[in-house]
Amino acid sequence: MKLPRSLAWLILVTMTVISPDAPAAYSSREPGETLALWPAGTPGGKNVTVREAVIERAPNGPLRDRYAEHVTRPTLTMIGPKGADNGITLLIVPGGGYVRVVIDKEGFESAEWFAAHGFECAVLRYRMPADGWEAGADAPVHDVMRAIRLLRAQRRPTQSSQPRRIGVIGFSAGGHAVARAVSDDSLSYPRADAADDLSARPDFAVLMYPVIATIGAHAHAGSVAQLRAAGVSAAALDRYSPDLRVTAGTPPTLLIHAADDTSVPVENSLMMFGALRKQGVRSALHVFESGGHGFGMRGVAGRDSAAWPRLVQDWALGVAGHD
What we know:
Blueprint: H1 5-8, E1 10-11, E2 33-36, E3 53-56, E4 66-69, E5 75-79, E6 88-93, E7 101-102, H2 104-116, E8 120-125, H3 139-154, E9 165-171, H4 173-183, E10 204-208, H5 221-229, E11 253-258, H6 267-278, E12 283-288, H7 308-319
Parallel strand pairs: 6-8, 6-9, 9-10, 10-11, 11-12
Antiparallel strand pairs: 1-2, 2-5, 3-4, 4-7, 5-8
């Protein structure tokens, strides 16, 4: 019997439970069900020759540390709230310098913490700019926009009378994709189905040590190299700096960074915060004295940066009207 498309593109994966305040012990299972982002086929791939792969950087544990490279089948992995549902769905967009997607460290581990605190979470595995997609440098941004629309299309009920709110958090290069998605009104892609008739504007955004600058002294060389490899000319790079595209319609945004980040300088967040303030967008910025880059849920014990998930939680609840 042929399944309806709405069911055929759901792949059920066994659930696991992770402690709310620490990364999970090594497990061979995924933490939720996985949905195809583009069930009718990933668009614009006629010139794509790369092969998707998942690399395990710590095969002997104790924690999983995988990344996906050359993503050709973008997905959302859904993780339901543990206990009381706070009515917020959080789309999580991990980083990886636009050459990979850091699945566990910034993806599933973050999702399990937020799920344990009442959030429904969706971890995005997105395409890379330089893999030959017709959308080029916009491919990862289109995946972010599509994910928001799919989450909105599901219309899952909440435990209150309020409609479900949708937020998005992006890490590093994932933060760049999110920042572009929420600040550039000119971005669009061909309609795939009814979900694309819905708004791609989230109710709020969180940018974790994001890549913002694509020109100047504070640009992240690795991310810029991938944009250039996708066909972006040096003269056009400023179009890909989200701080230059912010409008009054950009959703409320929280930025979190460490002052000692030597990979993506803190000036990236300062620039974005300044642009948000200039446009009158509700925004907040928290800079930790130390933490480096890419800390995610690991390596923060005993540091001020260990507070970042609770800062996000409190801010998101406030913005979503749960004060």
